[in-house]
Specification:
single chain; mainly alpha; two-stranded antiparallel sheet
Length: 415
């Protein structure tokens, strides 16, 4: 019998969910996940901890109708809620803002009122920490104001989102093509992409500008996007912008990347949003198309050379490109073949043991180069499972929307 890509994605996700459930750790009144099992220290954050796992468990519950996943999500929400009060970081992927997104998701999907109250509490804490300008010295999406603005929008607090973006008109740096921002106060390199750079700020400004009916914010977002577009080194058919200018000097940073965080897969998400917000301008869907052209022809997911495409995960690896492939399938009808290639690669790189299926990443400059498997959204099982389940849903004409949308990826319409 021929195994269809859908069957492969579903079976991979099912085995990985078993591993993920077994990786959970009992906490006082709840359930939490460590990033790495060798540490055994749970963390509540969206990037690498329990909040990111919650989103995946909700997708799994909707897909398989297995109440183990819903029960684990409720217990996980208790663990996150218990951490909100004293968690010092505020950002989307590292702090209370992302915890609010996950808790609001559990409330919306499962009707859990305690999770909803905890999400409200998290938003109250965020508001109390606002110093009139910011929560920390970061402008970017992962840690700084841009991500907090998007979290507030996702949780329905437009006023808080507006507060979070008020610093950007006053801190924009004019360039020959548009504007840019520091990623962090005093940082010299100017980064360009979603996680720590201009496009993450662009995304937040555009999203808040639309929600708050603030055309000035949308115009500022367009100016930021214009700066990034001017740096393209792959045109006219492709799109490839360097990591930073001047290039950040670090042994693990290459000039170009293709993932969500510092590369073309994430750039396309910003252009998708701008396509929705400025529908009369054909430049933005054309740029998303150019990103897709570059990704398909980049050589990924092959491991072409040491250090090239060592990650299976959602942030800077194969799962993040699979997320865009799913968007393309729904919106453009052209992502299916490459999505199958990506799923096949994830299948080939999966490890299986008595606890289930898991993935490890590689750092070729370290010995041993194979890193321990992790649980979370960014580099681990949770982020990969989420995309595998979505691929299976799309391929079988089920609803492609995530149970808990992350606020830096535009939701597609239902099929």
């Amino acid at each position: 019998m021929t195994i269809k890509p859908t069957d492969n994605a579903e079976s991979l996700a099912l085995g990985a969910l078993e591993w993920l459930l077994k990786a959970g750790r009992d906490t006082d009144g709840g359930l939490g996940w460590p990033d790495r099992l060798i540490d055994d220290q749970v963390t509540p954050v969206l990037y690498s901890g329990t909040s990111g796992v919650l989103a995946t468990l909700l997708d799994a519950w909707l897909y398989f109708a297995d109440d183990r996943y819903a029960d684990a999500a409720v217990r996980g929400a208790r663990s996150v809620a218990a951490a909100v009060e004293n968690w010092e970081a505020s950002g989307l992927y590292t702090g209370v803002a992302g915890m609010a997104v996950a808790l609001r998701g559990v409330h919306r999907v499962l009707g859990d009122s305690a999770a909803g109250a905890s999400a409200d509490r998290a938003l109250h804490i965020l508001r109390s920490r606002y110093d009139g300008t910011a929560w920390n010295d970061c402008y970017e999406l992962i840690v700084g104001n841009a991500g907090i603005a998007l979290a507030a929008l996702e949780c329905g607090d437009v006023d808080l989102a507006c507060l979070a973006v008020e610093r950007y008109p006053h801190t924009a740096e004019a360039t020959t093509a548009g504007v840019q921002w520091e990623g962090r106060t005093g940082a010299v390199p100017r980064m360009h992409h979603m996680s720590h750079g201009t496009l993450g700020i662009v995304y937040a400004l555009a999203a808040v500008g639309r929600a708050a009916d603030r055309p000035d914010l949308v115009d500022l977002a367009l100016a930021g996007a214009a700066d990034v577009v001017s740096r393209d080194e792959a045109g006219p058919d492709g799109f490839l912008v360097p990591h930073s200018d001047p290039q950040q000097q670090h042994e693990k940073i290459e000039r170009h990347s293709y993932g969500w965080c510092h590369g073309t897969a994430g750039d396309a998400q910003a252009f998708r949003l701008l396509s929705d917000i400025v529908p009369d301008d054909p430049a933005w869907p054309a740029l998303a198309d150019r990103c897709w052209h570059t990704l398909v022809n980049s050589g990924i997911p092959q491991r072409i050379r040491p250090g090239f495409w060592d990650n299976n995960g959602r942030c800077c690896g194969t799962a993040g490109v699979l997320a865009l492939a799913g968007d393309r399938q729904v919106e453009c009808g052209d992502g299916g073949d490459f999505a199958d290639v990506l799923v096949a690669d994830l299948a080939a790189r999966a490890g299986t043991d008595a606890d289930g299926t898991h993935w490890s990443n590689v750092e070729h400059r370290e010995t041993p180069s194979v890193l321990p498997p992790t649980t979370g959204w960014a580099m681990g099982n949770a982020g990969i499972i989420r995309e595998l389940l979505r691929h299976a849903r799309i391929t079988t004409n089920r609803d492609p929307r995530y149970a808990v949308p992350f606020p830096d990826q535009p939701q597609t319409a239902s099929l």
